[in-house]
Every structure is written in C-alpha cells, then in structure tokens.
Amino acid sequence: MLIDLLLEPLRYGFLLRGLVAAMLIGIICAVIGTYVVLKGFAFIGDALAHIAFTGIVVAFLAGVVFYLGALVAAIAAGLGIGLIQRRVGLSSDTAIGILFSGVFALGIVLMSLGIKTYTVDLFSYVFGDILSVRPSDLLVIVGLGGLILLLIGLLYKEFLFVSFDPLVAEATGLPGGKLQLLLLTLLSVTVVVSVQAVGVVLVVAMLVTPSAAAYLLTDRFHRMMLLGAAFGALSALIGFYLSYYLNVPSGATIVLVASALFALVALLSPRRADLRLLVRG
C-alpha cells in the first residue's frame, strides 16, 4: 500500500518533472540560502523575487520566454542594489526599497494595462505551480542550478570570507566588491529558477527556512550547507506528495513543510550555532 501511494503520482510525466524540479530547487535554494542567512539577505531575496515578476510581465508583452525577462530584471536589480549601496552610500535596506517598490509597481501597472488575457498564467508565477514545469523548464533548472552549485563550490572559501568580513577580505587582496556582486547575481538566478515552482510570494521562504533550520543544528558552515540542502529536498518531496493527495497548491505546501521542519528542529535543537564558529567550517 505504501509503495503504491509513493508510485502513484510518478506514473504521470508532468508530475515526475514537477517532483524533480521541486527537489532540485529545494537543494539550490538551501545552498545559496546559507549565505542569505549569514549575511541577512532575506529582504534582498524577497525584493529580487518581486522584481523578477516585472521581468516576467515584460517577457509576456515582448513575446519571449519568461526566463529571459526574469533573469534580466533580477540580475539588473541585484547588481543595482550592490552598486547603489557601494557608490551612493545608502544602506542596503534603502537601496532595496528604492528598486523593489518602483519596479514591482511597474510590473503591476504593465500587467493591468497590457496583458488582459494572460492574468491567470501570470498569477501562477505569483503563487507557484510545479505541475506546469515542462521538459524545457527542467533543462533550464538543471543547467542554471548546476552552474550556481559549480561556482559556489569553486569559490566557497572566498564567498565565505567576503560574507563574514568583507573589509578584512578586501584587505587581504580579495576582490570583495566583485565577489559580493557575483553572489548577488547567483542569488538572482536562484530566485528566477525557483519562481515557477514556489512562486514570487514564497521563494524567500525556500531561501531562508531550510538553511535556518540547519543553522540550529551545527556550528560548521559546510555542514549547515549540506543539512540545509537535505532539508530543502525533503521539504519539496513531502510537500509534493501532500499537495497531490490533499489537492492543495504545491508551492505553499512545500513551504509549509519547510516551516514545520524548522519548528521541529527549533524545539529539539540542544543549542544554537554561533556565526563566529560557522566560518571555521
């Protein structure tokens, strides 16, 4: 009976693609999410997700694939936030607020004026729908996700050093500014590949919650990253089956499972990790 319950959804190609995409996104979000938690980038992740939505709207208007519009908008916003913060001297929250509110408002106006017939399709990106993942979408997730994981693996120590203490990192000769902009770019790409599965509203939860749960269980950064990836994949797996059998939205269900795992870990965790010890990982 249990095996039948597990295999039932996998008999359909679109459901199997959705499950694979959700688990990959859970892993990718958690890996980049370790830096989000370390640097307090949650607000940036949320802003990038909403700005990516404006890029999706523009892509629909231009008649091009939504990934192109979302990528251009999110990456431009990520770089813009970094440049405004560094060159104008504004705080990160102020820089985010300037871009976030204006660009997202533009997306809403464009949607209301120019895309009357695509409202339902666009709202699927707001709340997420892993069942709409096509073979081409899965290839994009695998390709971009693999690139993100590869770059993080190659620049693991550099990203960690810059994230924990950017001033000291630059003093030792590391290009701190460029590395931070690259990290923001990777975060932007992660947001874009995640929007279809969990939606604009919920993507920040997948960036933060699994990694935050892992943060409560370890005092080593690399273990936090691995545990976060495991929590992200597990949340996607359980959330997928619950959404199928309960007939509820997939993105919201995955996030609820991730939140439940965090609550369980918070209750059972014997200690909290110290961020000063994480860099020793």
Automatic annotation (TrEMBL):
GO biological process: cellular response to iron ion; response to zinc ion; transmembrane transport
A Pfam family matched in the record: ABC-3
Any Gene Ontology CC annotation: ATP-binding cassette (ABC) transporter complex
Transmembrane intervals: 12-38, 50-83, 95-115, 136-156, 184-217, 224-244, 250-268
Recorded superkingdom: Bacteria
Keywords: Membrane, Transmembrane, Transmembrane helix, Transport
Protein name: Metal ABC transporter permease
Keyword Membrane part of the UniProt annotation: yes
Bilayer topology term: Multi-pass membrane protein
Subcellular location(s) per record: Cell membrane; Membrane
Keyword Transmembrane helix belongs to the record: yes
Family membership noted in the UniProt record: Belongs to the ABC-3 integral membrane protein family.
PANTHER family, A to Z: ABC-TRANSPORTER METAL-BINDING PROTEIN, IRON TRANSPORT SYSTEM MEMBRANE PROTEIN HI_0360-RELATED
InterPro entries: ABC_BtuC-like, ABC_TroCD
